[in-house]
Please model this.
Amino acid sequence: MAPETPLPEAGAAQALVRRARAVLDGNWCDGYTKPAPRLYPHQWSWDSAFIAIGSAAYAPSRARAELAALFRGQWANGMLPHIVFHDPSGDYFPGPDFWETHRSAHAPRDVRTSGITNPPVHAIAALKLYQRDPDEQTANFLRALFPKICAFHRYLYEQRDPEREGLAYVRHPWESGLDNSPVWDAVLARLGPDVLPVPAYRRRDLDLVAAAQRPTARDYDRYVGLVALAKRLGYDETALARECPFAVQDPLFNSILCRANEALAELAELVGQDPGEAREWYAQTRTAVEEKLWDPAHSVYVAYDLAERGRLVAGSIAGFAPLFGGIPSQERAATLRTGLTAPGFWGRRGELYRVPSYDREGAAFDPRKYWRGPVWINTDWLLYQGLTRYGFAEQAAALRHDMVELVDRFGFSEYFGPFRRSEEGPTGGLGSPDFSWSAALLIDLLSEPVE
Ligand code: 2M8
Model:
């Protein structure tokens, strides 16, 4: 299936990078970057790591500032919160007053944050920063950042892995980053208001984006109910591990953790520290993902539901993320490639932009709705790295082509309708325009030599 549109020539690629930089400039808030101009007016954790990966290519001082600002919100127990509210104003829900993080003794007193975490992309961003800008200033910065990233990973292994399996669990769909993935439906279906009381609240996202592109009211009730539960338990991890009804081990989160441990071990050597602990974490997680999250019936990795002690459904793009973590053997990676290039993700006749976030042939596929079908630049970037890592150059090139074509044609949207032509299905940008990680990861992609 040949790519249909020629990629921009070198000059045009430079113009695209300039447009991407303008998006990041527009979202820069004097010390950190908002994910989007209006929809997400604070600092988000994994967004900032992706943003730093992009800004490292042309503005290392900004990448350093980005990571430093984020880690100002780190909790005393090591948790890196998914949102840091440097400016508590703004009309995002749930804002800092809703989170009430003062209920935890671990929350910082001088910075307001959320009370949940996000995928640990930060060591990967820090290593990228060094690779792009290996000077003394960066080395000093990394010396100071290194123990903070270690503390975050240690938190994941000590507080989010109660059975010491080598797998971190997430206790809120927002922690997974793929908020309304159909994979969570079965778990959330059990959490009606009788199980999980929901306080009164008002969403703000629907003021800015069409409801057809955002999570449902039913999903939001669960999201808010889970925050309310964490507050009631004072964000106590032991109590949450016992009582939180949403507790899943996700292949995307753990594959990122695996890759982040590899990066952390490299960082340790760069800053003159012992890489042993990071290597040990890497080995544990790699084995655990391989043994526990591989679903032989579907030949893909799936999430595990700790509450019901069973595997969740296949169909999510997250199932291929172990390629990014370097987790499967070469042989199993080839099996994964077969699944990824099947019609549900790769299309049949070039009709799809690769890669939809959910299997087009799955019953829950929805080409407009957030993490239930649209294409996202960050998951494409993760898969591109994974395919390249395993030497799958042809598929990596196809993915790179589609990433570039999507933003060239439709701008730096938050996500994209997966169809090339509107006669086939939804096409074009969805969610927020001028989305930071779409811009940042394009800059990174276009700054790397093509293998
Ligand atoms: C989305 O999540 C936030 C909640 O954290 C939201 O919908 O309000 C997700 O796409 C998440 O992965 C992302 O980090 C965040 C900011 O871009 O938006």
